[in-house]
Design brief:
Length: 138
């Protein structure tokens, strides 16, 4: 089974139907789910997305996100201390010229560990790190 990683930069527009990227992200997500892909994210991305929704869309939207992100076909992977150490060494220290956040670096480390090549994201750091970002431009 193939997996698709979903980043904060996709979760937020997916939750906000008025966001200009909502339709393209929702279409790409539906297409992959239709192909039987499992959706993977991290506890750090969930926390980041919840905080962003709380600030921009309010408590109701933030709570709805927390409930929906835990339902199939979604899977939340937890960033353990070992995964965090790997993320810091492999992505933050090695790519000193790139401003990768800890959440992004942990996502990259997890994707590498699980063999995930595609991410639903609007964050260009995923392509800089060598992953395929969906939806594709154009």
């Amino acid at each position: 089974m193939n997996d698709l990683f979903v980043d904060t930069s996709a979760w937020y527009p997916l939750a906000d139907r008025s966001h200009p990227d909502h339709a393209a992200l929702a279409r790409a997500l539906r297409e992959r789910i239709g192909q039987g892909v499992r959706i993977v994210t991290t506890n750090l991305v969930v926390a980041e997305s919840h905080a962003l929704l709380l600030r921009r869309a309010g408590q109701r939207a933030a709570l709805a996100f927390l409930k929906s992100v835990r339902q199939a076909p979604n899977r939340i992977e937890y960033i353990t201390p070992e995964r965090e150490t790997d993320a810091i060494g492999r992505w933050i220290e090695r790519f000193r010229g790139q401003p990768f956040s800890l959440a992004d670096a942990a996502s990259f480390a997890l994707m590498t560990e699980l063999g995930i090549r595609e991410a639903l994201t609007l964050d260009r750091h995923f392509t800089i790190a060598g992953f395929v970002a969906l939806p594709a431009d154009g």
